[in-house]
Amino acid sequence: MIGNSNRSQQDFVTPELALFPAEAVSLEEPNVLICYADKFWPPVATMEWRRNGAVVSEGVYDSVYYGRPDLLFRKFSYLPFVPQRGDVYSCAVRHWGAEGPVQRMWEPEVPEPPSESSATLWCAVGLAVGIAGIAAGTALILRAVRRNAANRQPGLL
C-alpha cells in the first residue's frame, strides 16, 4: 500500500495529532505517553519523541498504520516514562502533507506538595479538634452519670 501511494493522484492529508498519558499521572510512578496521529494520507509518517528538547528513542514503540472507514489512516506511538517535575515531552510527526513537523507538547500537571508549615498547621488543627471532642464527650458522660444518680434516690417503697 505504501509503495502504491507514491504514484497516487490523491491530495495529501496532514495528520491531526493528540498526546496524552495512558493513566493518571503521579510523580515518580511509571506511565506511558501516547502520541496519536489521525486522519492522514498517504500512510507514510515518521513519529519522533523528545524529552526536554533531547530526542528519545529507547523504549519507543510505534504501531502499524490502521485504516479508517474514510480511507484515511491513523497510527500510535508509545513512550514509557517516569514523570519528573519540570519535564516537557513532545511528539512530532513528519508527513508529506505538512510543511514541517506537526508537534504536540505535554508536561505533567501534578499539584505542588503542601509546605511543611501548612502540614504542621493542619496537624495542630486536627489535634485541637480531637482534644475538644474528648473534653465535650467526657463532660456529657459526667452530666449523664449525675442525672442518673439523682434519679435513683431511694423512694418510699
Automatic annotation (TrEMBL):
Top-level taxonomic group: Eukaryota
Alphabetical list of PROSITE patterns matching this protein: IG_LIKE
Family matches, as InterPro entries: Ig-like_dom (IPR007110), Ig-like_dom_sf (IPR036179), Ig-like_fold (IPR013783), Ig_C1-set (IPR003597), MHC/Immunoglobulin (IPR050160)
SMART domains according to UniProt: IGc1
Domain Ig-like: 15-95
A family per Pfam: C1-set
Stretches that traverse the bilayer: 119-142
UniProt keyword annotation of rRNA-binding present: no
Keyword annotations: Membrane, Transmembrane, Transmembrane helix
Signal peptide span: none
Protein name: MHC class II antigen
Protein species of origin: Gallus gallus
